[in-house]
Amino acid sequence: MLVAREYRSVAQARQVLGSALDRAGTPSLFDRIDWFESLHAHCFSTTDVRIFQALEGECQAWLFLLSSGAGRLGALANWYSFDWGPVFLGPLDETVRRRLIEVIAQSLLTDSAQIDLYPVAAASDMLLDAFRRAGWFSVRRPMGGRHMLHLNGRTFEQYWAQRPGRLRTLIARKNRASRFTLSIADRLTEALWRDYAAVQERSWKKPEADLGFLHALAQRESAAGTLRLGFARLEEQPVATQLWTVENGTALIHKLAHDQAFDGASPGSLLSHAMFAHAIDRDHVATIDYGTGDNGYKTDWMEERETLYRLDFFNPRRASVWLPAARAAISALVG
């Protein structure tokens, strides 16, 4: 028997789930209840959530969505989410899973006009099929990429020998003249976080709006032993930092920052060299994931690109979405 339910807070969903989406039983960081809980609390605290659960026998599907009002919904995700999709519990039965998503999609037709989901990779086909079957007009558009490295048993030395010559030359040249001290910590301290925040403040990037979210992430992963917080320092001054996590054979690169006053000495690149070496030769990861964004520098370090999609769903019963639906469809056709 198929059952669909809705929850209006992450706390309600957590209560129903119990330990089901905790770290012990959920390999992906981005599928865990504490990920969604922290993301909402720190980045979307003024936006309502709508969380949907569908059940059939021992199989469950969960969709974590945000509600911006006027019948519009979106994924509970942002640029720190490497991939968004349904979270499943129970036996791996693709037919049942599609049916569960379709039931949720049918229930959404009653009070929702438009849904946009991003970033979606692995679940793209399933979501499109289920929502179309439920009666939604659906559009899929490529919106950037996710850069990956699969080591396939290589050591760091073997991996490094295959990097572009310009990158290897840069690192060798900057290393010879470097006065930086490099370090990688797996436990967070107040002093380390102050240093991290100081680099963020001096970064060439815009001020970090979600520093509280990153702090909470670093604290959780420190407690689990999966944090890798790297620093380049000139004497005692931190000038570059990187926040990675390493778990289940995969290293995730969450955030990079450096003090722009030291651009000429490339402390960020030197730190990347050390972080990759540590992840490959000491943590023995099989995969390194550079996350979302098609920044040019990523292609020097990574070898594969996975397309990320934006999925737009329009309720054909609502005349107000016909024009936006047509525009989205044309946009998808012309790229």
UniProtKB/TrEMBL annotation:
SUPFAM superfamilies: Acyl-CoA N-acyltransferases (Nat) (SSF55729). It comes from the Bacteria. Pfam families: Acetyltransf_6. Residues 179-298 form the BioF2-like acetyltransferase domain. This is BioF2-like acetyltransferase domain-containing protein. It comes from Sphingobium fuliginis (strain ATCC 27551).
